[in-house]
Design a protein that fits this description.
Blueprint lengths: L5 E10 L2 E11 L4 E5 L6 H9 L6 E6 L2 E2 L10 E4 L11 H11 L4 H14 L15 H13 L5 E5 L7 H18 L2 E6 L2 H7 L2 E5 L5 E5 L1 H6 L4 H6 L4 E10 L2 E6 L5 E5 L11 E6 L5 E3 L8 E12 L3 E8 L4 E7 L14 E6 L5 E4 L1
Parallel strand pairs: 3-8, 3-9, 6-7, 7-8
Antiparallel strand pairs: 1-2, 1-4, 4-5, 9-10, 11-12, 11-14, 12-13, 14-20, 15-19, 16-17, 16-19, 17-18
């Protein structure tokens, strides 16, 4: 089982006069499904190309396991890449596309046939072994690209937005198949995407890159979503309500007084109040953490009233924009529970918003 980690240390890179990476440091654990999530233009694909050897650093080092590969030729790295456009040979059939890398290495013909069949079985396309590439759907072509990449048994498989050209249903199915494939192979998968749902779905751990090519946060999908460490991460991964306020701490706990909410005092646990007493802080509150009701409910640390301004039905959830004191809009996502009758909430209704103090996150000063 190939479980080599990847390590980038103090990587610097420019394209002409544009700085791509000023001082990039990142460790990708071996044998895991690792996602790199960031906006378009953040340098995700360039990072992948550095690992693969298609680009060269201006300074710094890249390691595969304990071996430095910074300037190693592409063909000597045990790294394969799956591109967004598949990069298949249209004049070759399925078998010949998948077998191509083995033939370059002059592997015996009977061994090639055994490995091609076994690899196509992993991606559920063994029955199309002699089919023309032009006869395959987009999803099938992507599986062939995956088969061709993994047949050489690389230590690392790099996936550059591989599902971007597929429709939503097919993307969902392919994400599951990618997870199963990584679990079967046990090698290191590095998945580049700007789609937060894809990253949260596939990743064992992930890194968030900002517009300047800097790593904002590294962690498990749950840790990054539930405990973002910056406003960029909180806004880029999921949706959030974000407010500035003044933190006050005493022996009983902590509150953040928010002027734009009509000097509303948000209660939070004292152990989450890492800033000093009296500091101006930025607070994040996820929309799905807020309970909405026209009724008075008990058991919540925080409660405010507002008026419904917008209602958006999203199938599994309904999203509300609620105008509260000071004219500020608070976003609320409510799960649509099929087996339980829900209140009928309409435009201009007066509603109560509730949330627990544990759901409040202080992001930064």
């Amino acid at each position: 089982m190939n479980t080599k980690s990847i390590r980038l240390e103090h990587v610097k890179m420019r394209f002409e006069n544009e700085i791509v990476f000023e001082d990039l440091n990142l460790t990708i654990p071996g044998g895991k499904f690792f996602a790199i999530l960031g906006p378009s233009g953040s340098g995700k694909t360039t990072l992948l190309r550095l690992i693969a050897g298609f680009e060269t650093v201006d300074a710094g080092s890249i390691y595969l396991g304990d071996q430095e590969i910074t300037y190693m030729p592409i063909n000597e790295r045990r790294v394969n890449t799956v591109f967004q456009n598949y990069a298949l040979f249209p004049h070759l059939n399925v078998f010949d596309n998948v077998a191509y890398g083995l033939r370059v290495k002059c592997i015996a013909k009977d061994v090639i046939e055994q490995r091609v069949v076994a690899t196509l079985r992993m991606v559920h396309l063994e029955k199309m072994i002699y089919r023309s590439i032009q006869q395959l759907s987009g999803g099938q072509q992507q599986r062939i690209a995956l088969a061709r990449a993994v047949i050489n048994e690389p230590d690392v498989l790099l996936l550059d937005e591989p599902l971007a050209a597929l429709d939503m249903k097919l993307r969902e199915r392919m994400l599951v198949e990618l997870i199963e494939l990584q679990d079967t192979l046990g090698s290191t998968f590095v998945y580049i995407t700007h789609d937060q749902i894809e990253a949260l779905t596939v990743a064992d751990s992930m890194a968030i890159m900002n517009h300047d090519g800097e790593i904002e946060q590294v962690g498990t999908p749950k840790a990054i979503y539930e405990f973002p460490t910056s406003s960029f991460v909180a806004k880029f991964v999921g949706s959030t309500n974000m407010f500035k306020g003044i933190l006050e701490i005493d022996g009983k706990g902590a509150v953040i007084t928010i002027d734009e909410l009509g000097a509303f005092a948000v209660v939070l646990p004292a152990d989450k109040a890492w800033a000093r007493d009296g500091a101006e802080v930025l607070m994040s509150l996820r929309p799905e953490k807020i309970e909405i009701s026209k009724q008075m409910l008990s058991g919540f640390a925080n409660h405010m009233r507002g008026t419904i301004r917008t209602i958006m039905y999203h199938g599994s959830s309904t999203r509300y924009n609620v105008q509260v004191a000071g004219g500020t809009i608070v976003r609320v996502f409510e799960q649509n529970e099929e087996h339980f009758p829900q209140e009928v909430i309409d435009y201009d209704d007066e509603v109560n918003l509730y949330w627990q103090k544990e759901n409040v996150v202080i992001l930064e000063r």
